[in-house]
Amino acid sequence: MSALNLPVFSCSLDPASRSRDLAFMSSELLRRHGYRSEVVDLAEYELPAFDNAQVFESTSFTALHEILSGADGVVLAFPIYNWAPAATVKSLIEATGATGQDGRRSAWFDKVVTFVCAAGLPHSYMATAAMGQSLMLDFKCMINPYTAYGSAALIGDI
Length: 158
Description:
Layout: E1 8-10, H1 18-32, E2 39-41, H2 59-69, E3 73-81, E4 84-85, H3 87-97, E5 112-119, H4 129-139, E6 142-143, E7 148-151, H5 152-155
Parallel strand pairs: 1-2, 1-3, 3-5, 5-6, 5-7
Antiparallel strand pairs: 3-4
């Protein structure tokens, strides 16, 4: 039996992102425990804004959809801005979650999803609730109840 494939998506465009650091730490931890895991850094992809048309023509969409489709589970590492997940993670879900025309099928169905968050304030820990609920209801994802949440006060400069 082969090891589970658990890519870690770094969903920040900030060059000095703490959530990107957490993504690399998460991927390393998974590999140490025998899983297949690579960091997929969305800053290296030029995923267009979701428009339900042109986005599906982009090479970034195709690559990200393939990675997600082949994953057994997914780790989403992202910053919390204004008491909500960064727009980049929502954009990833919108594009790769679209189902419909041309036989497109969401890459998210039945995935186990873990959140790894970096935030400025320690009291935004509920910011993932709506996104988790949407993934569960829309795509039948199983949300890992153990969210890694670090604020500047807790993780500082990592």
